[in-house]
Amino acid sequence: MLYYPAKVAAFTRECLRRQIAVVVVGFPATPLLMARARFCISACHSKEDLLWALDVLSVLGSDFLIKYGKVKTDDKKDDKQKKNRIKINQK
Question: ∠ CA 10-66-78 to the nearest 5 degrees?
Fold first, then answer.
């Protein structure tokens, strides 16, 4: 769920820039504050592909302030490690 309509387009562009296919659905197909992102996973994706995508989405969630749940004190450290893994995988 992307509860901030203004962030939907930016989130989509950033996912595309990082080579993650995402479909976002917003108003009028959903209530105004209930926009959502959908990801399609296939049997062709390896475990490494999925872990990489989760790392990217975690970093984007932090960057766009759209993560929900309890915040751990190690989140910033974890995001730095994830950013480093993402850069290594993209080379």
Answer: 105
Angle at CA of residue 42, ends 68 and 58, nearest 5°: 25
Domain count, the chain: 1
Assess contact for 58 and 79: CB atoms under 8 A.
Answer: yes
Task: Please give the Cα distance from 54 to 48 (Å, whole number).
Answer: 10
The amino acid occupying position 7 is: K
Entry field: residues in the chain? 91
Domain that holds residue 63: 5-90
Average pLDDT over residues 31-60: 92
pTM of the model: 0.71
Residue 8 token pair = 């939907």
Roughly what angle, to the nearest 10 degrees, separates helices 75-90 and 47-63?
130
The partner residues of 35 in beta bridges, in order of sequence, read 2
